[in-house]
Queue: 2 jobs
Job 1
Amino acid sequence: MCGIIGYIGPKSVAQVLIEGLKKLEYRGYDSAGIAVDDENEIKVRRVKGKISDLEESLAKSPLQGSYGLGHTRWATHGRPSEENAHPHRDCTGSLVVVHNGIIENYLPLKKKLKDEGHSFQTETDTEVIAHLIEKYFQGSLEEATQRAVQELEGAYAIAAFSTQDAPKIVATKVGPPAVVGLGENEYFVSSDINPLLSHTQRMVFLEDGEIAVIEPEGVRFSDFKGSSLEKRVDYLTWTPLMIEKEGFKHFMLKEIFEQPQVVRDTITGRVSLDSGEMCLDEIGISAEFLKKIKKTVIIACGTSYHAGLVGKYFIETLADIPVDIEYASEYRYRDFILDRETLVLVISQSGETADVLAALRAVKKRGAVPLAICNVKNSSIAREAEGLLYTHAGPEIGVAATKTFSDQMAALALIALHLAQLKEKVDSETNFSLIEDLHRIPYRMEKILSQAESIEKLARRFISFSHFLYLGRWVNYPIALEGALKLKEISYIHAEGYPGGEMKHGPIALIDEKIPTMVIIPRDRVYEKMMSNISEIKTRLGYILAIAFEDDKEIQDKVDKVISIPSTNPLFTPFLTTIPVQLFAYYIAAMRGADVDQPRNLAKSVTVE
Ligand code: M6R
């Protein structure tokens, strides 16, 4: 939800900001802007549209400066327009601010500031920050920011500069992320590490209530009271190449193809094929506690929720522990009951999703010891959870989650096996066979990916359909939900995911020749039940695409088209059934000319409620 970037250093400022914004564009892309300090005069350029539009405008009429700020927006308050695009100015025009988040009390603040004589140019909540800093400015931007933030309610990552206290960028945060990059005689602030990777791997992550003062000579840190802070410098191992398309048409397609490798990376070293033992000491939650747990609660949003739902089946089946799965946005407002024998798992790719972070804080308040599954290193959720298991998916740029979904399932399979071993719920033979199956998953994924062209051909037939139904059951019910979500979010085709057993309770009324159904039907304990669903749909003239095991001959003449996947342990089929639903959605969206990597109205990390 919005990306911010700031730079002070010898390189071309506008260029560094534009390149940085391109890497943040997945966070929001309805308007963008930069502001630079050009010999003590602020020059601002803003456009409605994408970073490429801003780049075009700057190519026609360049901006020179010695430091500056950039912003890419996902509108919350005020429609996407040039006026509402950041950076925003104060009344004097000598101060600019960029912001990610929501200022919840902006209306009373705006009224008060107007009464005090400030004049507003935009419909945004952000503009109040510029006027508040202006109000308290007495020569020190840092001090004025400290005073201004005392009045703000809500979530914010802010960066500002003023020609009256220059050269300097001041950045702070409560809620959304902000990271400072330490280069050679150059310094950066950004919403995430992606824009910084091509300049430096030395990063400092700001915590809530901290302020960074970035100057040409270096960076100082303090808290909201002005006390200086010593901050740890982290060395990030992600490389710039990881955020390039590397010949793929879209990041999403590249990320779908990366899945075998990222699942391998997430499993490797954490489970031994030789001894059958799990090596998960890194999670930081004691084996004594895990041995005693009687229940698990999984909390997440969106695709991570679907991974959590798969995790429920893994944990219940392997470790024999009951699992509740909850939307973070609901759970945080519930009068939930947690006891000391419950393991809370929070799942978030970005580690910044506002609802997940709030739920994490709420469960900690009730004395729970949450274990997080995150992909982004040092993200807020990764830092605040008591226990942590990283997925090793690398940066995911496509807004639609793909490789991180498979990786979250891999992490959940590891946790389920760990719990099963600790609770002695699997005998040695079953344990070895599960671990072997898990290790074979990446090879089987590769086999499915080698059929991508035939899935593309198949997808072509469906580009003009308006509705789609996805059916799955047991461990593949979450994949029906995920398949429908993928199709909706990138192709804008209406799609619903249902558990097969629920068909008769309503959705079957929808079936006719205009609604195709994707049926996920590997040979498992609900195979026959899904077969009944298939004949019910066929009787009503519905077109059926099935995802089934390659050695399943029975299905061939029962449906219109089959996408084959290799046979595997039924419990682990979601790793395989996921790939066809992702590819199918991708090809349909790409053929419809949709903006696959940056679907309308969405942003990669939802850092506001
Ligand atoms: O970063 P998170 O895993 O917490 O994000 C959760 C959802 O916002 C995310 O999965 C979203 O649903 C994606 N657009 C799905 O493709």
Job 2
Amino acid sequence: MDTEIFRKISYGVYIVSSRKGDRINAQTANAVVQITAAPPQLVLGICKDNFTNECIKESGVFAVSILSQETPLSLIGRFGFKSGREVDKFAGLSYRLGNNGCPVLQEHTLGYLEGKVVKELDAGTHTLFVGMVTDAQRVNEGEPMTYAYYHQVKRGTTPMSAPTYIEAEKKEQREEKTMEKYTCTVCGYIYDPEQGDPDSGVAPGTPFEELPDDWVCPMCGATKDQFEPAE
Ligand code: FE
């Protein structure tokens, strides 16, 4: 099987949120698809290990924030590489609660959809939630982030719990590495001195050694000492 072909399927990049009692949570997701227009229904593929899955199962409601191309890697990383069981992913972010009580982002977001679960399908590692859309609102103007843009321009990596994660992706990253690059041992983000880290104000051409001591991984927040030279 040529797993590279999976990379040719196009996706968006979304923040899927839900709640459990008073607790709110959300995660980065690319498996969000509209399946019918009348009535408006979506299907969400959510990893069973994720706290968001537990929240959606319990509350039966969700919201999907549609990310813009300008979304910093740090926001995608915050929702994608940390667990809501351990951290409050919304701390310090601009968000509000939708009509169904699920949080929706107000920044880096073109708009959001709120919904309720009408059917669940067990798909092995993931649950497919079929959701009826109960509200949809525009928030900001802009272009939507796509999975391809995220990979090609923002150089994101994919957590192993994402449905689109494939071993080939790791292999490809290994082949691209040079001695100057450093890898985050927590999330797999690769610091490339040629690109720098513009989202954090680090200019292209900055060697890893010259990064400020308080610089952290833009994907997951790991500190510099959690990086190691890429092979
Ligand atoms: Fe990281």
